[in-house]
Design a protein that fits this description.
alpha/beta, Rossmann fold, Dihydrodipicolinate Reductase, domain 2, 2 domains, seven-stranded mixed beta sheet, six-stranded parallel beta sheet, 15 strands, globular, oxidoreductase activity, NAD(P)-bd_dom_sf, Gfo/Idh/MocA-like_OxRdtase_C
């Protein structure tokens, strides 16, 4: 039985708590959140306790692992403190908004000899994962070009945007990880050149907060492969999450998920369900599968599909995109 503490009782924390409670061999012991009512409610729902404070979590010898689903600004501190306390770590993306602090986390994890997995849940989406498996099996030959479409149905509150680190670090960091996963061949082919541009087309208040809401990024790898990412904070038809990878012998395309796959055809035309409304629905299976993977690998000692090193690498790409947007020039990597 692995005893776990959860940091964060917001919407991601609630997802992870439910998935933890359903896992055999895992016991959710404590929930920690600065909002007492949120912590109490979530702990009560899953037979856990409210942690009296953060220090008590790290001092508890029963707690073997922590799940970090708290705000981004707390991630690096909690990771390093967990490593110092010899607790294994599952942490939501990103590791930190600073590459230097993210790398410091990776160094602390390595020095402590604890396991650390970063929650890039898209790698666990059944559709995306099937495409990657088939790609790795050589089904379409050598991958040459990746096109990612990633659009939210609406923008988050401006107060959130002000502290989010910007669209590249908050939203596109998932897409940067997908790029590395699909075209990077396990780190053997990384980005060599990146160009990013963007606009504020959804809400002028986002521009006033210092961010953009629409972006286009082009990446060329050291091996000459190409990736294009288009993203927007507004898709009137739902949560638009697709990618296609073109290979030397064909193409693999991953479409949106819909609430049902029923198609109606009549004299007025063809009708299907709109895509799932948002990430909570689109990636419900992925969240469950990633936390199952974390504990399975803890038990077996095998490598995680998404490591803290992946978190640092995605953060470097996000920083490069922000630099390219600010300067109007591409970024060339060493």
């Amino acid at each position: 039985m692995t005893t776990v503490a959860l940091f964060g009782a917001g919407r991601i924390g609630r997802i992870h708590a439910a998935n933890l409670a359903a896992l055999p061999g895992v016991r959710l012991k404590t929930v920690s959140d600065p909002v007492p009512d949120a912590a109490r409610s979530l702990a009560a729902a899953h037979g856990a306790q409210v942690a009296p404070d953060i220090e008590a979590v790290f001092a508890d010898p029963e707690v073997e692992a922590v799940v970090i689903a708290s705000p981004t600004t707390t991630h690096s501190d909690l990771i390093t403190r967990a490593a110092a306390a010899r607790k294994h770590v599952f942490c939501e993306k990103p590791v930190d908004l600073s590459v230097a602090r993210a790398q410091a986390c990776a160094d602390a994890v390595a020095a402590a000899g604890v396991a650390c997995m970063i929650g890039f849940q898209r790698r666990f989406d059944p559709t995306f994962a099937a495409a990657q498996t088939r790609l790795a099996a050589g089904e379409i030959g050598t991958p040459e070009m990746l096109v990612i479409t990633s659009r939210d149905p609406g923008a988050p509150p401006v107060d959130y945007i002000r502290s989010s680190g910007g669209i590249f670090r908050d939203m596109l960091i998932h897409d940067f990880d997908v790029f590395r996963w699909i075209l990077g061949e396990g780190g053997r082919d990384e980005a060599a050149w990146l160009s990013a541009t963007g606009s504020c087309l959804v809400d002028p208040a986002i521009a006033e907060a210092g961010d953009i809401d629409s972006a286009a990024v082009t990446i060329r790898t050291k091996g000459g492969r190409l990736c294009q990412i288009n993203t927007s904070r507004r898709a009137a038809y739902g949560y638009d999450q697709r990618f296609e990878v073109l290979g030397s012998r064909g193409l693999l395309a991953c479409g949106n998920h819909r609430p049902t796959e029923v198609t109606r055809l009549d004299a007025s035309g063809v009708q299907t369900d709109l895509p799932e409304h948002f990430f909570l629905q689109r990636y419900r299976d992925a969240y469950r599968l990633e936390i199952e993977h974390f504990f399975a690998q803890l038990q077996s000692g095998g490598p995680f599909r998404t490591s803290v090193a992946d978190g640092v690498a995605a953060q470097r790409l996000a920083d490069a995109a922000a630099q390219s947007l600010a300067t109007g020039r591409p970024v060339v990597f060493d």
